Amino acid sequence: MVTARDSEGTGQAAAVAPHGESGAAAGFTLRIAQLSGGQILLYAVLLLLLVITFIPILYLVALSLKDNGQIYGRFWSMPNPYRWENFGLGTLVIWRPILNSILTSGSSTAATVVLASLAGYVFARHRFPGKEMIYTGILALLMIPPILTLIPAYVLILNMGLENTYWALILPWTSGGQVFALLLCRSFFATLPEEFFDAARIDGASELQSFAQIAVPLSAPILVTVAVVRLVTTYNQFMWPLVVISSPKRQVVAVALTQFTSEIGVTDLGPQMAGYILASFPLIILFSFGMRHYVRGLTAGGLKA
User: Fold this and answer.
1) Candidate CATH numbers 3.30.450.20, 3.90.226.10, 1.10.940.10, 1.10.3720.10; the one for domain 85-304
2) CA distance 56 to 233
3) 104 φ/ψ sector (left φ>0, alpha ψ -120 to 50, else beta)
4) Counting beta carbons within 10 angstroms of the beta carbon of residue 188, is it exposed (0 to 12), middle (13 to 18) or buried (19 or more)?
5) Domain spans of the chain?
6) Among candidates 144, 128, 131, 206, which has minimal Cα distance to 179?
7) 92 φ/ψ sector (left φ>0, alpha ψ -120 to 50, else beta)
């Protein structure tokens, strides 16, 4: 049985809900009204840049749903009909190069992170004769353009008998990423409190234990940053795989996308555009799960370097 007080309370509650909603809307409108002209202009410019950034991506999706006739005849029109089978054709061609890229990029990135973190720990926490001179010499390698080492590196790979193998990609990518990764790791390890390592020595921990159980956990953001940078760099490599890999079965995705032809030798632009979209999925997944740690590593590195 509902009393008069209950019905009165129900009516008040029903009256509060729309009042709360209107209050939230009024608060949002008030915050917009409080923005200065400069802030409104800044937001407008950022919104315009966001739209400009996404227009090519959206049109890439539109092209991936067309055939060659629609692309050449009605380039700026929307797909009609939609060729969803282009993604199936693109998958048949691109799945193996994607696996090759993940294998080679992942292996070289893991090796780079391990070696650079070990070297960074040594340079940051230990003293030995010639340390600064060696470190400066390593950093000087950043001034050498990679294109200058293309021919010497190819001759070295050729003499080692590694041409047209996965090692021809993994080993050069591992060595090529050491300098920048060492710079980040050394700068970050140097900021870690010395008290942690003194306490570990008192407890009888070895240097390897101090590195694995203290330095690495505390430096996870910068290590993730190094890993993301190297994965993106090596996954998008084009020139070096084109030089050292000749077998289509071992080719990486960046090169395979440029060799996207049908059985009769005609480039199918629709499936090729679909292949570009499919090839971007590993990097999208990588940034989806690693963006938070990546930003933390960049921020920490910028503040502590």
Assistant:
1) 1.10.3720.10
2) 22
3) alpha
4) buried
5) 1-34, 85-304
6) 144
7) alpha
**In the 8-state DSSP scheme, what is residue 149?**
G
- The CA radius of gyration of the chain, in Å to the nearest whole number, is 28
Return d(Cα 207, Cα 215) in angstroms, integer. Answer: 10
Asked if residues 111 and 170 have their Cβ atoms less than 8 Å apart, the reply is yes
The whole model's pTM is what?
0.78
Walk along the chain (305 residues) and give the pLDDT tens digit of each residue.
444 444 444 444 444 444 444 555 555 565 666 666 778 888 889 999 999 999 989 989 999 999 888 888 888 888 888 899 999 988 988 999 999 999 999 999 999 999 999 999 999 988 889 888 999 998 888 888 888 889 999 999 999 999 999 999 999 999 988 998 999 899 889 888 888 888 988 888 888 899 999 999 988 888 988 999 999 999 999 999 999 999 989 999 999 988 776 544 567 888 889 999 999 999 888 888 777 766 666 666 544 44
